[in-house]
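Hello again, I could really use a second opinion on something today. I owe you a coffee for this, so here goes:
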Amino acid sequence: MLSKTQVFLLVALGIALWALVTLNIRLRPESLVDPIHGLIPFAAAPLAGWLSVGLCKIVGRLSPDQVLPGVALVGAVAMMIDGAALKWFSGIYGFDEKILRLAAAGLLWGYGVAFVVALILAARFQRRMA
């Protein structure tokens, strides 16, 4: 179970990560539509997933058995903000429909990869405990 302090820290991290990625999308929309540059985030997602899970562990001061719920909390916060922003404030990301679609695809891919990394770490922890 996560403590109140951990929950606060992880919610703040989810907001910060969302803001960072949103700023990147907003400031570099052309990178999403470029055939080569548009592939880089997808290819780099496994590394970014490991880094973001590591960041969750450090910021949230997570024990091995807390990694999965901690990463899930950070991801849920960021995804909920993304969902609301894409629905009601899509101009935050830009106004081109193609860019919005590609940004949403990249966001979903990134969240999925981070969750897979957290699942791998949780499975490793469970095997060690068995």
